[in-house]
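Reviewer comment 2.1 asked that we show a complete input and output for one of the modelled complexes. We chose the 1,3-dihydroxyacetonephosphate case, as it is the one discussed in the main text.
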Amino acid sequence: MEKEIRALKARKNAVVMAHNYQPMEVQALADVVGDSLELAVKTEETGADLIVVCGVRFMAETAKILNPERKVIVPVEDAGCPLADFLTPDLIREARQRYPDAAVVVYVNSTAESKALADITCTSANAVQVVASLPNDTILFGPDANLAAYVQRELPEKTIVPMPPGGHCYVHTGFTLADVEAARKRGGRVICHPECPPEVQERADLIASTGGMVRGAAAGGDEPWWVFTEREMASRLRVLYPGRVFYEKPEAVCADMKKISLADLRRALEREKHEIVLSREVMDRARRAIERMIAVGA
Ligand code: 13P
Ligand code: SF4
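Response of the prediction step:
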């Protein structure tokens, strides 16, 4: 299977992008593995004719928006992100009416239609820098309310209004104070994603995107790390830093991230399916918001 996938990639001049939460066997065959920001930026740098995004749908949509002339496919059509579904275009329009002076910042974990209504997008790696770059005092921020709370703590001079108030990722809200206490008892550093609840964030040693976790671990240290995000992240860190100890929470599984198997990847490359198709208008508007984020340079 691995041989066939490598041969198909070469024959079709395809590039495989995989998110850090993808099954390790998929990551092993990817040309780029990274967080949402890294995947978005790096798709633009490849000269590939075919871009295969092993992740959830919004990641493939972002790749398509940045590469409108290229074919972008996702191996499993219904790999979605329940967090992204919290934010609808109607919610954004209503919030804009209520706060006419506010800027709208939309997290990349969102649909292309919501991105098209944003002033700028952000990822968990650059949310603070993106909001800080805006002149507005009030920021409408969605869909993740915990990421919004993180930005609010870092930038107390701004008023961050979560859109909607309860938007969340079920994988990250599964982390609790009891998990922090259990980790503290056993010793080591607690590293959490900013989608975790505020009370967990407040007690963590480091709050970081998945790419930030890779960079943070590179700084070394021999203490064990408690990795409070989707459980595959700890496997990724173990591959990158052999000999170091990274603990995952076994129940922290993103079901959608686990839908893509090697058989799906091979089929996707063979049949060039499932293609991401978006309207030109949505892509053009969403691209402006994503390119503004990339220009912030964080
Ligand atoms: P990162 O951008 O940190 O990789 O996060 C994406 C995501 O889906 C978090 O659950
Ligand atoms: Fe979406 Fe959460 Fe899965 Fe990330 S872990 S893709 S935010 S459901």
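The CA atoms of residues 192 and 201 lie 7 Å apart. We note this here for comparison with the apo prediction described in Section 3.2.
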